[in-house]
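Quick log. Single chain, no ligands specified.
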Amino acid sequence: MELHLAPETEAKLNELARRTHRGTDDLLQEAVENLVTYNSWFEDKVKASMAAAARGEVVADDRVREWLEQRERSER
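-> predicted structure:
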C-alpha cells in the first residue's frame, strides 16, 4: 500500500518518530489501527442510537440538559 501525506503532515510524523524513537511505519500502523477501531465503535454507537430512537427511546429537546445532568450524577 502506498500513502501520500501533505509535506506538513510528513514533517510532523517524522518529528514524532524522532521524539518517540519509533519508526514512521510503526506510527502509521498504530494510527490506522486506531482509526479503524474508532470508526467501528462509532458506527456501532450510531446504529444503537438509531435503533433506540426507532423504539421511541428519545429525550425531548427541552429535557436534554436535565437528562445529561441526571446521567452524570448516576455515573458517580
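The first helix runs from residue 7 to 20.
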